[in-house]
Design a protein that fits this description.
310 residues, alpha+beta, Beta-Lactamase, Arc Repressor Mutant, subunit A, 2 domains, 4-stranded antiparallel β-sheet, two-stranded antiparallel sheet, disordered C terminus
């Protein structure tokens, strides 16, 4: 089951953020809990600078992995987290909580607080391409001082908090179901999560939980629990290069990797090793394509400034 964003953002807030982004030449994206962008308000495309980096210097997966890490950090901290991406740009992620339940994220990008391109990126730029192309793309990213950046992020934080308090951002669907799914995801590494424990967490009876899951999702509670573990397993295969079926099985609390394989095949109609090989091939193939024309130079090493501003 996807951790999909179940919120309604009313037109007035969409208009506010559209005007905000136009004034500051920035991008605000609302996303589901798994990072999927939502079509809310004006949809600003990825920056030309980021597109060039992902095409010629490092693969898009590197950005997605960092974004996922920072979403989890923002969710745990329950506040906005500001960080520097691999390209040296400032980004921020704001977790959206409604009735103490995480519902999604607002991500702000991109801001340039330096007038100089990172030397590591300049060194990694393909020799066959004009270096001025990268410099122009970098210069097109809006530049603000650190003080102004703090004010921009503070304004975004206040707008979202105000919108939630005035129910301009409201919950859609069943929050109890969202809490059930969130609890199972947080305990995906546990050997077993009893129905009674979930019921206590959400303040409902076990029978109510079973009925709600069946009515809303069309599957049993046990099916939902297994499906949550398998989603987590697939996340490991996608994000941890070279991870084995045994290692994934162990991380999910299975003492027998062959039992885990049987469960995976039963629900996914394929073996976990097949899923893992497919993503290993895709990642290696993408990395190989992006490395051509770069004279086999090493990947850039960019210091990450993952400190929280708010």
């Amino acid at each position: 089951m996807n951790r999909s964003l179940q919120i309604i953002i009313k037109d007035e807030l969409q208009n506010i953020f559209d005007h905000f982004c136009a004034c500051f030449n920035l991008r605000i994206v609302f996303s589901s809990l798994d990072g999927k962008e939502l079509e809310i308000g004006a949809h600003y495309p990825n920056s030309q600078f980021c597109c060039l980096l992902q095409r010629y210097i490092y693969c898009e997966d590197k950005c997605l992995t960092l974004n996922e890490k920072m979403r989890r950090e923002a969710e745990q901290a329950e506040r906005m987290v500001c960080y520097t991406c691999h390209g040296g740009l400032i980004e921020a992620i704001y977790p959206i909580f409604i009735e103490q339940q995480i519902m999604g994220f607002a991500m702000l990008g991109w801001i340039r607080s330096s007038k100089t391109l990172l030397s590591e990126l300049r060194d990694q730029w393909p020799a066959k391409r004009d270096p001025a192309e990268l410099e122009r793309a970098f210069s097109s990213v809006p530049f603000y001082s650190n003080i102004v950046v703090r004010h921009i992020l503070g304004l975004v934080s206040l707008l979202i908090d105000y919108a939630i308090s005035k129910e301009v951002i409201t919950a859609k669907g069943n929050l109890v179901l969202a809490k059930i799914v969130s609890y199972l995801e947080q305990h995906a590494d546990a050997p077993h999560v009893p129905l009674k424990g979930v019921a206590q967490y959400v303040g409902k009876s076990p029978s109510t939980i079973s009925h709600l899951v069946k009515k809303s999702l069309g599957i049993s509670f046990k099916h939902l629990q297994v499906d949550t573990k398998l989603n987590k397993a697939e996340e490991y295969f996608r994000t941890v290069p070279g991870i084995t079926v045994g290692e994934v099985s162990e991380r999910l609390g299975y003492t027998d990797q062959f039992y885990f394989s049987r469960i995976y095949k039963k629900y996914r109609k394929m073996s976990p090793s097949s899923y893992g090989r497919r993503h290993d091939f895709t990642n290696n193939h993408d990395n190989s394509k992006r490395s051509r024309g770069r004279q086999n130079r090493p990947w850039p090493t960019v210091q990450q400034n993952e400190s929280s501003i708010f």
